UniProtKB/TrEMBL annotation:
Entries under InterPro entries matching the protein: ATP_synth_F1_dsu/esu (IPR001469), ATP_synth_F1_dsu/esu_N (IPR020546), ATPsynth_dsu/esu_N (IPR036771)
Name of the featured protein: ATP synthase F1 complex delta/epsilon subunit N-terminal domain-containing protein
Gene3D superfamilies for this protein: 6.10.140.480, F0F1 ATP synthase delta/epsilon subunit, N-terminal (2.60.15.10)
Coiled-coil residue windows: 89-123
Length: 134
């Protein structure tokens, strides 16, 4: 048995294939999805999701969204998503370090919220590359 996975961002289809297993970063922690999973609708957090297909693991950084699981079909709607081959390691590390510094220096409620979102986005992309290079 396999899962039919479709990941859609506003501007493109990020992933559309059959897979064996998915590990998602949800708002309440990570969740593993295998064939014959119970129907589920869950919110995604900014983070790295892992996808097993043909014995190989791939990773995808998602910037929040929703997942619907029903009858071995997994539909993921994301605000943004990146797979590891779309990200430059040097640039991702620089973005992560800058976002970390800006978060530490942020003052005021609005600026702290904006800095935290930028940090989560940069962290997801950077961790995606670190995970895929191991």
């Amino acid at each position: 048995m396999v899962l039919s996975l479709r990941v859609m961002a506003p501007n493109r289809i990020v992933w559309n294939s059959e897979v064996g297993e998915i590990i998602l970063s949800t708002n309440s922690g990570q969740i593993g999805i295998l064939p014959n999973h119970a129907p589920l609708l869950t919110a995604l957090d900014m983070g790295v999701s892992k996808i097993r297909s043909g014995g190989q693991w791939s990773a995808m950084a998602s910037m929040g969204g929703f997942t619907m699981i029903d009858n071995n079909r997994v539909t993921i709607l994301v605000n943004e998503a990146e797979v590891s081959d779309e990200i430059d390691l040097v640039e991702a590390q620089k973005d992560y370090e800058v976002a970390q510094m800006e978060l530490a220096q942020a003052e005021g409620r609005k600026r702290k919220i904006e800095a935290n979102l930028a940090f989560k986005r940069a962290k997801a992309g950077f961790y995606l590359l670190l995970d895929s290079n191991q």
